[in-house]
Amino acid sequence: DLRNPNEPEFLQAVTEVVEDLIPYVNEHRPDLIDLKILERMVEPERIVSFRVAWTDDQNQIQVNRGYRVQMNSAIGPYKGGLRFAPDVNLSILKFLAFEQVFKNSLTSLPIGGGKGGSDFDPKGKSDMEIMRFCQSFMTELQRHIGSETDVPAGDIGVGGREIGYLFGQYKRLQNNFSGVLTGKGTAWGGSYIRPEATGYGLLYFVQCILDYNNEKIEGKTVCISGAGNVAFYAAEKAIQMGAKVLTLSNSQGAIYDKEGFSLDKLNYLGTLGRDLAKYTKKYPSASYHAKENPWQFACDIALPCATQNEINEADAKRLVKNGCKIVAEGANMPSSAEAIKVYLQAKIHFGPGKAANAGGVAVSGLEMSQNAIGQQWAREKVDHRLKLIMENIHKTCVRYGKEPNGYINYLKGANIGGFIKVAEAMKAQGVV
Ligand code: NDP
Description:
Blueprint: H1 8-28, H2 31-34, H3 37-41, E1 46-55, E2 61-72, E3 78-84, H4 90-106, E4 113-118, H5 127-141, E5 150-153, H6 160-174, H7 194-212, E6 221-224, H8 229-240, E7 244-250, E8 253-257, H9 263-270, H10 279-282, E9 286-290, E10 301-303, H11 313-321, E11 326-328, H12 337-346, E12 349-351, H13 353-356, H14 359-373, H15 379-401, H16 410-428
The structure holds NADPH dihydro-nicotinamide-adenine-dinucleotide phosphate.
NADPH dihydro-nicotinamide-adenine-dinucleotide phosphate binds next to helix 8.
């Protein structure tokens, strides 16, 4: 694409969506063609890119690049996470922002789509270095965001600690305590269940798939990748629901526990930081596989919860061959385009990230509502609403993704279901 050179991830995400949308629009919504809705949706409303200079613990000046991609505000303020990782670039942030537009629409909450971050690598940095970086990042970002303009959250490398430092600097510069970020601590405006929401929501979505097929989760084997926020709470909920979680991983390798993780084992793993290999010393039922991913192990359900393109075609074929029946994405675009073709051809149930991991942003949306009315809802209330939202997303996917032979193409369902509301809003709001 001449307009987006060197943006393979963005082009991959757009292709995945327009392959479903073009036939749908041609057949059902020709009114949207002349309005150039699709052409407008692939062009971000605004992108800001800025210098982030900060001082490390050796008093050396470091320079990183910060971004915010404000993709679409047709149905609400821009909303989407901030990612701090060395491989962050515009292609990755544009793909994430584009996906976010559909995901946020699917939640049925009034939130538009955006994404941001920096090529800053938080690994190995001290607490004070993280704080100084976050303060410098927010010193510029604050002029572009606001509780009714753009509300960032966390993503890879941005958790509760970083949101705290970012919020503190925003408040200091703007003299304004408002819901400008989500993922805040529960003592200062955060919502209960937000840290757990993406992982829990993923399992609620898997539960919907199983219910739809009259199956039970008890005893099903589950392979999960990642050992971060999403992976951890996906594993916790899967164990609580009676599934047998066999793997977790990070960018250094995978842990396979043939007896399955218990909640105690999972909590122990959570104390190890990135040194997952240590787990095998305490639990001999487990083996460590350096530089490998979990997709070589047989399972009923695969939950990729680490990063984009972590399942390639060969991995997907291995999963299918080993009997995997459900792939539900906790991460964003973890399956390559070729891997998705393998799932759809094998007619296994494939829950794409924009549907399956929407629980995180959904609870972020609920955090915005709580901030707007100055309240904090009980844990049970938020969890209940999260469940209802995931059930609704599943219904939308079935509505738009059901094929004549009864197979549910969740990807198609999510693409079309997420698109319609945004397209209607853009149509109503004129040519902008
Ligand atoms: P975290 O930073 O908490 O955890 C990321 C995990 O993935 C870490 O275990 C990390 O390992 C691993 N990982 C990162 N890069 C790679 C890689 N190249 N290969 C293998 N493993 C890797 O992030 P989150 O859990 O928040 O996010 C994970 C995914 O979920 C992302 O795709 C994110 O966009 C998506 N997501 C997150 C949401 C949220 O609410 N947090 C909401 C919706 C989607 P290591 O420590 O070794 O780098």
